[in-house]
Amino acid sequence: xxxxWLSLLAAVAGGLLLRAAFPGPALWPLxxxxxxxxxxxxxxxxxxxxxxxxxASGLSYYFPLIAWASLFLGxxxxxxxxxxxxxxxxxxxxAIALAYRRVTAxxxxxxxxxVLVPLAVxxxxxxxxxxxxxWPYGGFAWGRVAQSQSASPFGxxxxxxxxxxxxxxxxxxxxTALELGRTRARPLVWAxxxxxxxxxxxxPLFPVSTIGTARVAAVQGDTPEAAYFVQGxxxxxxxxxxxxxxxxxxxxxxxxxxxxxxxxxxxxxxxxGVRRTLDQLSQRYDAPIVANTVTVEPGESEADDRYFNSQxxxxxxxxxxxxxxxxxxxxxxxxxxxxxxxxxxxxxxxxMIGRGYAPGERDSILxxxxxxxxxxxxxxxxxxxxxxxxxxxxATVLFAPSNNADFGxxxxxxxxxxxxxxxxxxxxxxxxxxxxxxxxxVYSPEGEVLAELPWYEPGVMVVDVPLADGLTPAVxxxxxxxxxxxxxxxxxxxxxxxxxxxxxxxxxPSWERSSGGHLR
Length: 520
Description:
The protein has 520 residues and is an alpha/beta fold. The chain is built from 17 helices and 12 strands.
């Protein structure tokens, strides 16, 4: 694809198709088509051309993918995040375009080229996703290609390779197919490649042993007042979840009751009425309640106080128990990094975020009787490090309390739930997601739906979830897999050198090539 304008059109179409692989449309096969068009658009491109084409592709991908960011905040934050994400995408596109030029020129023979070019391209794609998932300000790990495959036959790979490794395989398969097309490979080679893809699809989930079950009651209060910009009376969100909890049958014999993020909008430590109600519910069902509120760590002055988004255990006998503070608050949503600088650029928007959450320092395991629940509050679910750390620390089940009220009936809740499903498969743990308004669901360690609740309706899910203690390769080696694959891509790009340098070397006299330019 040598025409710049045709490449630009392919890049934009690829971004749009890749977005359609995610919820809402959730047409997962389109991810492979989208990746293919994006890669085709970067062949035969200079670094400058690849940057422009990559930027166009990124914009066509991110703007519709995170359109939910504009619901309450308007177009400026949505545009800023989409453009920043697209700039990273464009930088990755430059690296991939250079790989196509250099690696192809360095290894021109068919056999090496069929392997090394896809390795370099997929590794560089993995590198770009890894960097942007962690930097700046903790990164934005939303929209990695593997996250589009929660309902795909490829999804089982996540238990072996993690999200980065699974994304690498997706890009590698597409890049290999493109190389076969470029080399006009014989039908036997195509058949071999197709068989390899089928083998990848046939890989089963890594088996994890179970050690019993726990009966969890997950509550969805249907409380739109939990949204930042929806007006309500203090206590409305709390009372909504109290009423929904009373839908649990008295003879349910539950082990724990899970409430979502933002479920208590009054300070339990300062409100006798809240504490009394929690005691009554815990006593009625003979089970602890895992709820959420804002906690404060006092500083030397009020200006030094630190606020946390906290999930805590409440029991009628002992009151406030174990606590987890959200470790990955959302920059420019739940706190403002470098506030003075950003306030000078957008005072109206930055001024809306009056109180920022500090990142939590406690471990993310909630001890609930004999249950060790790895807990991830909302956006935590996309942070690979938090996921692995909790399971390595002994989590036997995963809780994902969330507050999606700020996003209304957009695609954000469905995207987040799809990511949560992948986490259950990746870790070999049952996962319970409870949201204030939806979407709420329970997944088995195999990613099967055990229960779910309708959107914007109060309800409870009472489910016996399996507890597990085995570790998948993704949990044990996921970080090493990511670093290795990214290093392979970068190493092949650097090792290939520049085509002009190789041509110069090839034109040099034989004695110069053999001795580095010095007479023997």
